[in-house]
Amino acid sequence: MTLLVISPDYASHLLPLVTLATAWRDAGERVVVATGPATAPIVRAAGFEWTDLPLGRGSNPRVIRAEQQPPGEDEALRGFFAATRRGLVETLLYQARARRADLLWDPVGRAYAVREAVARVRPDHVIVDHLAFSARLALSADKVPHADVVLGHPSALPVGGEVYGFPTDWPAAFTPAPAELAELHKACRDVRSAFTAEWNVALRSLSRTAPLVSDALAEHGHRLLFNYPEALHDRARTTLLPPHVFLGSAVRTETVPDDIRAWLDADDRPVVYVSFGSFLSARGDVLATVLTALRSLDVRVAVATGSARDLPEPGRDWLVRDFLPQTALLARAALAVTHGGNNSVTEALTFGVPMLVLPFSTDQFAGAAAIERGGAGLALDPNAASASDVIDAVRDILAGTAPEVAGQLGVQLRTTPGAVSARRALC
């Protein structure tokens, strides 16, 4: 038996998919991962076969920096970071307007490359990232059964009257104006129409018989897998989803270097883990506010600074690196301060860690709202929160019921790992 995993050339997408694939590896089956060259070392380190399949202009082996991206993608990243400084609506407007270049890059050319990869590998099962639209276009055109893995909040797949790119929810800290939301909703509808038209043109060039679609952004694979805890998803929305499986989480095992293990064992004070992920670490101004706040609390701090620069002087006994083994730190943390990306959220919850979420973009707003309403943490507006706001939120989380709620969710998520659920769904 052979499993083919198809992922964009981004570590944040590839890592959970590779983790799901370990269930096939552990069963003695062949695993081939099709992605771009930047993340090939991750594939090989996991012991899987790699086949070259770039699915977009950009790449991110671990921490993304605009200056390391190809021409065009560098300016797009800088534009995105600038938009996050203007708030929820401006960020989502920017992302909506960039959607066709981001999600449907070279659709026919990439579809032919996917066809070639499938012909080479001859898989029995296929797992593909939901956001790899060009890959899913090829699989749909050729009627190749595949499992579609939604790695973000489940609202990344719109249902009912939802429009892709328009947030289904956001935390109470955000108060977008009705007129701005109306503008965003119209922009998302316009993008949906243009995106669907481009999808259908590409689909028809690949297949004369495949049925055209009315909303390409709502399309999904034969099997639908959500890398998300069902307990945090709105029950009313769950009833609207197509047949699906909630995987809970796909948490990788990381080797802990001796120096980091020694740091973890050196003190009994609670550990706060801070990371804004591979993209949003560029918001060093917000990270600086968080670090300033944490200096006044009796905690130890582990900070993955990513691409942030000019940060305040860290505490004397802090652990500060541009990259840290996240799951290893979360396993010992009392609190995570995060942007609310899917990996950070699901990994923190797996280890029963409550969160302070400062969301910047896409489905991070819906995810932050779910965490807050589910009682597993609190959310702040990153562009409005002061150091005193962060101090108050950290104290409220640690002194309240969030650690207990997160701990109970962690027990549930650890009982059946996502990789086991994924293989059961396909085999």
From TrEMBL:
The molecular function GO annotations come to:
UDP-glycosyltransferase activity
- Xref: Pfam families: UDPGT
**Highest taxon above the source species:** Bacteria
One GO biological process term is:
antibiotic biosynthetic process
Q: Does the keyword Glycosyltransferase apply?
A: yes
Q: Does the keyword Glycosyltransferase apply?
A: yes
Q: Which UniProt keywords apply?
A: Glycosyltransferase, Transferase
Family that this chain belongs to: Belongs to the UDP-glycosyltransferase family.
User: Which PANTHER family has this protein been placed in?
Assistant: STEROL 3-BETA-GLUCOSYLTRANSFERASE, STEROL 3-BETA-GLUCOSYLTRANSFERASE UGT80A2
- Name of the protein described by the UniProt record: MGT family glycosyltransferase
Q: Which organism is this protein's natural source?
A: Actinoplanes auranticolor
Q: What is the lineage of its organism?
A: Bacteria, Bacillati, Actinomycetota, Actinomycetes, Micromonosporales
